[in-house]
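User: I'm writing a tutorial on reading structure tokens. Could you give me a worked example: one chain, its sequence, then its tokens, then a sentence or two explaining what the tokens reveal?
Assistant: Sure. Here is the example chain.
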Amino acid sequence: MANKLKANNKCSGCMACVNACKLNAIEMVADNDGFYYPVIDKTKCVNCGKCSKICNNKKLEKSTPIKAIASYNLDNEIKYKSSSGGIFSLFAEEIISKGGIVYGAGFNKNFSVSHQRIDCKSNLLRLYGSKYVQSNIGNCYCMVEEDLNNDKVVLFSGTPCQIFALKSYLGKKYENLITVEVICHGVPSPIVWEKYFKEIEIELQEKVERVSFRDKSTGWQKFSLAFYSKSKNFIEPCNENIYMKLFLENHILRNSCYHCEYAKYNRFADITLGDLWGHAKISPNISNNDGISAIIINTALGQKLFDAVKEKTKYEEVSLKEVVKVNKSFLVSPNKTKIRKNIDALIKGSIKEYKINTSKIERLKCFFKRVYNKIKIEIVLISKKVK
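And here are its predicted structure tokens:
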């Protein structure tokens, strides 16, 4: 007999419970929408309560953001391969150069996404660039704990819920752990990605060899989703590509993303990374069209890591308030749409041929939601006296 650990609208799929259960009584099982949720096998469970305690940890320490920095990597090749300014690559290389370990999201052979442990510079490229699919953590939290206890410096990158999950799993503070989170819009359904990927391979009539969710061949701000095979390419701007539109317009996100528990001003990570949209106004001194990272420093440990790599960047401190305002997902959750509520119809058909049709009423709701979010952000920033 099996039983779910947590309601689907609250479970982020972080897999902390799976890592915590040493009896292997918890399995991640996909629902009809393609999202994985923990299921407890009662024949193995001894009711120790560890999984529930980690899942519902209310005592985990948060940090108040210290400052915001606009920056980009001076290595143009790395910057071009990165989603924005190529700053994460510098963090990762710094940790590896000190004999440390880096964890982050990378593609598998079938272009699903999982968290991977990297201990040499030559393999870091796997972690560069955005992957707009939820990463399978596997047993990474257990591996991180082992590395930390062996006195390895660990850099762990992920979504805010994954950072929370790791720290909750560990249960204590480690000075040799540095966490970097992305400003997360939400995670799309793995089954939608899988279907769409297969449709692209059918169109190309070749195996895809490389995928770039933030391909800069059409520019950084007007990036494309690109698939590269041996002799053919499929490159489509994000505002025209159906998968990216479904993602960016909130139609295929995980249920918990629509009321994200981690879109709060105070953060669990040492560093928060995003794009510096509106760079020409916020940071005209280092404005460029190839990619600029918005770095939010949340802790002294995060500041120390940036200080170690800053000579390899062009950077300047900028208004934290302005950075948050152009990265709304830092503070607000996406709005659940009618398509998401009926996602089974989308999954049953062709993703590539799907047409997004929204009613006037729904568009009006989205408009008022955007207005509401702007007001909410202003209120939070004023209440926190953010400059």
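What the tokens reveal: The two ends are 54 Å apart (CA to CA). The longest strand covers residues 208-215.
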